Amino acid sequence: MSIIDVGTDGVERFATLARNLHDGPLQDVLATMLRLEALTHRAPPELTEELVKLSNLQRQIIRGMREACGDTSVRDGRSPVDRVVDAITVASHSLGFSPRYNIDSAFDRVADEGVVNDVVFAVRESLSNIVRHANAGWVDVSLELAGDEIQLRVRDDGSGISPAARRGNGLANLRSRAERNGGSCNFATPPPNGTLVDWRVPWVFTGSGTRSDRGRGSSANSRRASMASR
Ligand SMILES: Nc1ncnc2c1ncn2[C@@H]1O[C@H](COP(=O)(O)OP(=O)(O)O)[C@@H](O)[C@H]1O
Ligand SMILES: [Mg+2]
Questions:
Q1: Is there a contact between 79 and 118 (Cβ–Cβ < 8 Å)?
Q2: Ligand 1 centre from 119 Cα, in Å?
């Protein structure tokens, strides 16, 4: 069964994709996680910690896949800020160090599920690129609700995106997740080295935490509260 073997109508296509993902790859990841957990009990002590980290990562992957399939029951009451922090924590295992981060607490007041998902996926992809390509020594993540925008900046001190780099789906998805919300995404290589992902979408709070048309509605948005790692 192919996960792209879907019908033509948009809703039907999503439902089929979600079902096929659930019945196919998700079950495979689940089976891997169960085998890892079983292995943890038999492994020599020096491997236990790493195996526990790996099975936690699998658990996170399963949760992410279920969320991507529209299953909101897996949220465990996690707020938008929690979800961003979770994404950073997962990446820190692969990076081998903790990114510094500063997340505006007003992000919890963004009630539009689609926008929150796009921000969380943008954080994940930016960090995954750093893990895979940058060879960075430090990473800074900043998420601010400033003026009439949600602004995400992910900065690393790694190799920088070479102009000759193949543009894969990741960078294209980052850009389209911004553009479909009326925003933008730019990739810069600021001196002396590294990459800056500058991802932003227009946002003005209404009383309900949903978006008003740009330039209208209350702009009394972010009473900033920041969090810093370590
Ligand atoms: N933070 C980064 N540091 C260095 N190179 C990067 C970074 N982000 C992206 N790249 C480069 O841009 C390319 C395209 O990225 P992407 O579209 O996400 O595809 P993929 O990650 O699957 O290769 C990568 O292959 C890599 O060469
Ligand atoms: Mg990528």
A1: no
A2: 18
Say how many Å lie between the CA of residue 68 and the centre of ligand 2: 17
DSSP assignments along 73-133, one per residue: GGGTT--HHHHHHHHHHHHHHHHTSPPEEEE-GGGGG---HHHHHHHHHHHHHHHHHIIII
How many CB atoms within 10 Å of residue 9? 10
To test the pocket of ligand 1, the residue of 133, 185, 186, 196 to mutate (highest count of ligand atoms within 8 Å of its CB) is 133
Residue type present at position 191: P
Regarding the beta carbon of 194 and ligand 1, being less than 6 Å apart is answered no
Supply φ then ψ for residue 44, to 5 degrees.
-60, 150
Atom of ligand 1 nearest to the CA of 128: 21
pTM of the model: 0.73
Give residue-wise pLDDT tens across range 185-216. 999 999 999 999 999 999 987 766 666 544 33
